Amino acid sequence: MALTGLDIYKQLPKENCKECGLPTCLAFAMKVASGQVGLEECPRLTDDARGELDEASAPPQRLVTIGPDPDPVQIGQETVLFRHDEKFHHPPAVALTVSDSLDESALGDLCTEFKALEFTRVGETLRPTMVALINDSGSADTMSAAAQMLHSALSVPMVLLSDKIDALSAAATGPLSGARPLLMCTGEASADDLAALAKQAGAPICVAGDAETVADRVEALGKLEVKDVVISPGRTSTAEALQFLTQTRRAALKSKFRPLGCPVLVLADGDDKVAGMLDACAFVCKYAGVVVSNAWDGHLLVPILTTRQNIYTDPQKPVQVEPKLYEIGEVTPQSPLLVTTNFSLSYYSVEAEVETARIPCYILAVDTEGTSVLTGWAADKFNPETITNALTANNAGDKVEHHTVIIPGHVAVISASLAEESGWKVLVGPKEATGIGPYLKSDWNAL
C-alpha cells in the first residue's frame, strides 16, 4: 500500500533545509506521496530511511531515459490521468521510421530530410524527437551499418526494432554503444534473453503484448534486475491500442500496480499514412510515451507535433511571450504600432497577420500575465494605465513619430481614456487578427 505524506514525513530529517527546492519537509513529503518528486531530491535522508521508503514512495510510473547524453529523451513518471488535475510532465517522443534495407544514398537523403523537419508555432520550435530503425533486411550486419550511419549523421535517440535478438545486440553494443537506444524485439524472446540484452547494451527494453502479458514480463524482468522497461500493445488496432494505453495508465496511477507503471510505445506507421497520423494524434492525447510514425511529410507530421505541444503545456500557466515592443519587418518611424497582450496565441496571431500583409509594424505586447485581450481587459490588466506604462517603458515615443496606436476592436471602449492617459492618438483596429491585413492596407494607408 502506498505511503501517505505523513508516513513519509516521519522518516524525513525535519530540518526544513530547503535543499530539495521546497520550503518545508512536510511539503516535500506531500510531493513524494503524490508521485511528483522522488526521494533522491532530499540530500539529508539517511540510508535506513531511504531503504524503508524507496519502494513505497516511488512514482507510480517509472521514468525511462533513452538516448545519449547530453540531450536524452525522458518519458514516463506521469502523475495524473487528466492534465487539468495538474499537468503532464514528459512529452511523448515522436520517432520516424527508417528501414535498414535502404542503401547508403537513401539513408543519407533521409538524414538530410530529418534535419529539415523543423517548424515554428507560437514561438516554439517543433521537431521529431527520434528515429525508429526497423530491421527489414533481417541482417544484423545491415542493421548495425544503418545504425552507425544514422547515429553519426543525426546523434538523436533511437528505437531499434527487430525480430532477432542478435541484430538488436549487434547494433546496440556496436555502433550505438553507450547511446542507450530503446530495444524492441518483435519476435519470440524469453525474459532471460531480454534481460541479458538490456544488461549487455546498457539500454532500456520494450516488451509487447496485452496488459496481462506485459505485466508478467515486466515482473520477470524486475526479478532479473532490469528496471528500465517500456511496454507496448504491439501492432494492433487503434481501438485496442487506446484501450491498452488507458488501462495501463489507470492501473499504474489509480491502483498503484507497479508492473504496468511503465511508459508506453505505440505504433502508428501503417500503410495508410493519413490514418496513421490521426492515430498518432489520438495516442499523444491518451498517454503514449513513444509514438513510432512514418509521417515524414510535413503536412502529416505537423498535426502530431501540434497535438503534442497543445497537450503538454501547463493548463494552469498561460503560455506567454516576453512583454516588450517587437519590430516586425524593416520598420521606420512611420510604421504603424499595434497593441495586444503577451498571451502567446494573441501575439503570434497578430504577428502572423502582419507578416502576411508585408507591412512593417511595431507590435507592443502588454504584460497581462499571459491572458488574452478580452480576459486581460475583464481582469483590469489590459487597460489605459497598463498600455500607457508599456508605451513608456519601451520608449515607443522615441521610435514612432506619429504617436498613434492601434488597439484591438474588442476593447474599443478604452480608446478615449487611453488617449487621455497616454497623450497618444488611438485608433480602433479590427476585432479579429484576420482583419489586420486589410485594415493596414486600407484604413492605415489612408491616413
From TrEMBL:
Record's signal peptide: none
4Fe-4S domain sequence ranges: 1-59
User: Which GO molecular function entries does the Swiss-Prot or TrEMBL record give?
Assistant: 4 iron, 4 sulfur cluster binding; metal ion binding
- State the PROSITE patterns in the record: 4FE4S
Q: Does the keyword Transmembrane apply?
A: no
Q: Which InterPro entries match?
A: 4Fe-4S_dom, Ac-CoA_synth_d_su_TIM-brl, ACDS_complex_subunit, Dihydropteroate_synth-like_sf
Where does this protein have coiled-coil stretches? none
Keyword ATP-binding set for record: no
What protein name applies here?
A: 4Fe-4S domain-containing protein
